[in-house]
Amino acid sequence: MDLTADTAALADATAEATRLLAPRYTEPVLAGLLLHATADGLTLAGNDRERAVSLSCAAIAHTEGTVLVPAKPLAETLRALEDPAVRLVVEGSQLAVRVPGARFALPLLDRDLHPGAGAPATDPVAEVDAIALATALRTVAGTAAKDDSLPMFTGVRMHGDGTLLRLVGSDRYRMATASLPMRGTAPFDVLVPAGLLGELAKLAGGTVRLHTAPNRFGASWGSVHVSTAVLDGGFLSPDAIQTSTVDTTLRIDAGALAAAVRRIGLYTDAGGVLELAVADGEIRLSGANQRSGEATEHVKADVSGGRTSPSFQVRYLLDALRPFTGQEVSLGIQPGMRATIVSAVDPGDVNITYYVMPMRAPGR
Questions:
Q1: How many helices and strands (H and E) does the chain possess?
Q2: Looking at 237, 263, 295, which one is the last position of a domain?
Q3: Is residue 362 part of a domain?
Q4: CATH code of residue 306
Q5: DSSP 7
Q6: Cβ-count burial of 351 within 10 angstroms (0-12 exposed, 13-18 middle, 19+ buried)?
Q7: Which residues, in sequence order, are bridge partners of residue 329?
Q8: Are residues 246 and 213 in the same domain?
């Protein structure tokens, strides 16, 4: 294989492919990237038997061919180059990366041990706007668990009914849901690993096409296609959370509340728990720590219903408020240890709801 390509374009394509591949591998060969050069350009593909990605990049192929090379070193080398054009050429058992005055050589990996580029994309079952999808995923995927010991909580449930895409994520202590418009041809309901969706939210542009196949889910935009094995997620549903016992509702500026929470958080104990006490026309946030002292701050709010004093972990409450920056939010507080429901007073096309569990206050 021998080709010449624009350095910046090839660096971007390689970096995108590397980010969409899984960060950990059971076999070194799965960390490789397949480069397939033809008269039509260059195709980059990776496959770790669960996640597969492919995309194309413009290139002039002097000699057509396919090689497998370590993905991360190739991406880092291309990113470090400043020359406008780069040449990739097979030299013995290495792939040489050449620019005027410099040569970098990567080992060729055994293609026979690699699972290949993966199955081609199925026809899309839905299309969504990339910006709207990214807005929803930044919140919903962020609530999924990071602990692989409970894999069912490491995914985002995606349910499409033809006109609306609904997303649900939870780590057992909080849950976020979002809905956004979609154009669909067939209903689907899958649990997709949140790690991949988090990268998709950062990289996708234009219109994102969603694909489903038995036990797999895929997304594509431009020349990029990524697919993954799905998880078992029929249990993950906001219907499992009781919301009929809200007895106190607050309307408050999300930014003002978040700023106060951050300040009071400086005075909380090691668990980072603060108390939110509801009064007439305001709420009072308080925290105490034997070493740093104590703090209290009052924030104006429209209050309806009863009076209550739930406690929350600072980090979780800030995460719940972050999607609503610049908006007025409604906090539906339920008695006891039931979830508090956070939503925008005037939601847009992307309608997000966040459920955050209260914590037991220190000393109670």
A1: 6, 27
A2: 237
A3: no
A4: 3.10.150.10
A5: H
A6: middle
A7: 252, 344
A8: no
Q: Is residue 118 part of a domain?
A: no
Reduce the DSSP state of residue 172 to 3 states and report it: coil
Range of the structural domain that residue 225 is part of: 126-237
Count of structural domains, the chain: 3
Residues 168 and 107 in one domain: no
Predicted model pTM: 0.89
Nearest to 77 by CA among 98, 56, 59, 92: 98
Can you read off the two tokens belonging to residue 127? 């299309």
| Single residue among 113, 143, 175 that ends a domain in this structure | 113
**62-111 pLDDT, tens per residue?**
999 999 999 999 999 999 999 999 999 999 999 999 999 999 999 999 99
Q: How far apart are the C-alpha atoms of 191 and 193, rounded to whole Å?
A: 7
**Residue 141, SS3?**
helix
Query: Residue 167 and residue 198: Cα distance in Å, rounded?
Result: 13
- Express each pLDDT in 22-76 by its tens digit: 777 778 899 999 999 999 999 999 998 889 999 999 999 999 999 999 999 999 9
Amino acid at residue number 36? H
Structure tokens at 204: 């996708």
**Residues 192/228, Cβ–Cβ less than 8 Å:** yes
Beta bridge partners of 69: 33
Which strand (E) or helix (H) includes residue 63? strand 60-63
Pairing of strands 293-300, 282-289: antiparallel
